[in-house]
Structures are given as C-alpha cells and as structure tokens.
Amino acid sequence: MTISTKILLAGAGYMAKEYAKVMQSMNVPFVVIGRSKNSASDFKKDTGINCQSGGIKKWLKTNRSPKWAVVAVTGDQLGIVTRELIYAGCKNILVEKPGGLDGNDMQITVDAEMHIHAHSIMTEQEILKDATQRAEQNGDGNVLVDLHYQGN
C-alpha cells in the first residue's frame, strides 16, 4: 500500500512516539504537531523526527486539513483536538483511547462527526468492545476483528 499524502500525527508524548515509529518503519509520510516547545523538542530528541509546536489549532490556520490524522494527545485534549480536525474537514481520524475526557466529551465529538459526515472514529478500545460483543452474540467465543472499518 502506498500513501502519497501526509498523515497528521497530533501529539508528542509517548503514544505519539510509538505511532511515529510505526509510520516511519512503514515509510508512511507524516507530520507531527505538538503543543509546547518542550514536548516538540523532546520528541525530536527521542525520535530524530521533527515536531512542530503550537498545537493543532495554530497549525490548521496555515495548513490545509489533512485527509488522515492520528490523535495521540493527553486525555483532556483528545476530544478538543479531534473536533478541531473534524471541523477543519479531516474525515479519517484514528483517536487514541479512550477517545475523550468523559462520555459527554466523546458524545460531542460523535455529534460533530455526524454533522460533518466524517468517517467513523474507532479507537482500539471501541474496536475490541465491538468484537467482544459480536463474539458474545455468536456464542462461540471466537473474535474476528475487521480493522478496515468504515463508517456511514
């Protein structure tokens, strides 16, 4: 699979570094956006990959919305950053678990997604929950997870 468009990686912490390693090993082009200069500097030091500071809102003011994004920010920022991307027009977003600060935060994001007609946002936790529910319904205990999920 060849990806010609850059994926936006929002975040500069531990999980963002892990996503960056995976994308780099797969030769997937991406850009990293962190909030603070310190986190961007630490990201660069730890990974050797450039990270722009200033946060997603600032980045979106001078750049077109990405087609693809991975949101790996702190829990209190998950919903906020995801909604910024949705409102900017990004329709393919992988959100790190749990997907928001709380149920209300996640519901606001789902409502935004439906209004903008973005592709469904599935976190690892939601994929596993869905797979477990399907296994329970089948009654056989076997779980098959389709990681090529597409929303409405």
Explain what you see.
With 152 residues, the protein is of the alpha/beta class. It has six helices and four strands, in the order βαβααβαβαα. The chain has helices at residues 14-25, 37-47, 55-62, 78-88, 103-116, 124-138, and strands spanning 7-10, 30-33, 68-71, 92-95. A four-stranded parallel beta sheet has the order 2-1-3-4, sandwiched between helices. β3, α4 and β4 (92-95) form a beta-alpha-beta unit. It is globular and about 40 Å long.
Index terms:
single chain; 152 residues; alpha/beta; 4 strands; disordered C terminus
Low-confidence segments, ≥5 residues, pLDDT <50? 140-152
Q: β content, as a range?
A: 5-15%
The CA-CA distance between the termini, in Å, is 23 Å
Structural class: alpha/beta
Q: Give a quick account of the main beta sheet: strands, pairing sense, barrel closure.
A: 4 strands, parallel
Total helical segments? 6
State the helical fraction: 40-55%
What's the overall average pLDDT, rounded? 78
Shape: globular
- Going across the biggest sheet, name each strand in turn: 2-1-3-4
The sequence of SSEs as H and E is EHEHHEHEHH
Tell me the Rg in angstroms.
16 Å
Number of strands: 4
